[in-house]
Amino acid sequence: MKLLPVSEINVDHSKAKEVEEIMKSTFRLITFSRQHYADDLLNTYLSSTTNLKELLSIKNAQMEAQNEQEAEEYLGSLKETLLFVANEIENQVDFTKEVQLFQLFRSTSPDSHENHPNRYRDKLVQIGAHICPEPREVPGLVSQLLYNMNSIKNPIIKAIYFHHEMIRIHPFVDGNGRTTRVANNWILMFNLYPPAFIRDNNEKTVYINTLSKSFALLDKNATTWNAETSLFFEQEIERLRDNCQLVYEAVKKLGEKRSLAKQSS
């Protein structure tokens, strides 16, 4: 398997720019507000982001699990993993290394890690019609992917590129989706964006179908950008944009409420 070259990425940067502007507007409200307490706005921002992290755990667990018992087990592991990620971000640590991938795998999928400790898969796997690379190829592809990410300046595009290609590599025997989506959000949250996630079953179906079609086209021509890969990037940006907007609206609403209270006093 060949990774999609970074030079081939051809997304609509205006959509990523819109996401950046929403977050800049949010931080302007927090930083330069004169009519209400900055601490209140900051607390609202943190509360909104925390709520989204909780939803991230719940939605990821629901997406991966086959039944309620599995979902409950996955949820506990995912919450613990996000605490670890939050601590790393607090210590100024971005997601850049292979060892971090194994840390996430161990935390999100403890049972799978126990059976395959600190190892990539040793068997061939298939996702729909996509046959994932041979086990012997996996270490080199993961290293190449992490190297490729260094040349992507925009953290939103970097996170989505990692997400798409890591799922295509499918390095672990199990837990690839959970591990990849947490790593994706580590990159986003380190760069002060809220986490992004699949919200419901309809969105899950669209997500899986878009990935499948993207992989199918890349299986035919691995080094050429295509419409389905472009669509996957657009959908991921849209998910992030929605959550950025939620955070902005929460902060803005508190500011407007305090301004009205001041005017009426």
Explain how this protein is built.
The protein is mainly alpha-helical and 265 residues long. The chain has one domain (6-31, 38-257): Fido-like domain (Fic-like fold, Orthogonal Bundle), CATH 1.10.3290. 71% of the residues lie in helices and 2% in strands. The protein has a two-stranded antiparallel sheet with strand order 1-2. 36% of the residues are buried. The model has no long low-confidence stretch (mean pLDDT 88).
Keywords:
265 residues, mainly alpha, Fic-like fold, two-stranded antiparallel ribbon, 10 helices, 2 strands, globular
CATH A-level architecture: Orthogonal Bundle
Which segments are poorly predicted (pLDDT under 50) over 5 or more consecutive residues? none
H/E element sequence: HHHHHEEHHHHH
> How would you classify the helix and strand content by structural class?
mainly alpha
Percent helix range = over 70%
The main sheet comes to:
2 strands, antiparallel
Number of individual domains: 1
What is the top-level CATH class?
Answer: Mainly Alpha
How are the strands of the largest sheet arranged?
1-2
Straight-line N-to-C gap: 67 Å
Separate helix tally = 10
What proportion of the residues form beta strands (DSSP E)? under 5%
Count of strand segments = 2
Average of per-residue pLDDT values? 88
According to CATH, the homologous superfamily is Fido-like domain
CATH topology: Fic-like fold
- Structural shape: globular
Radius of gyration: 19 Å
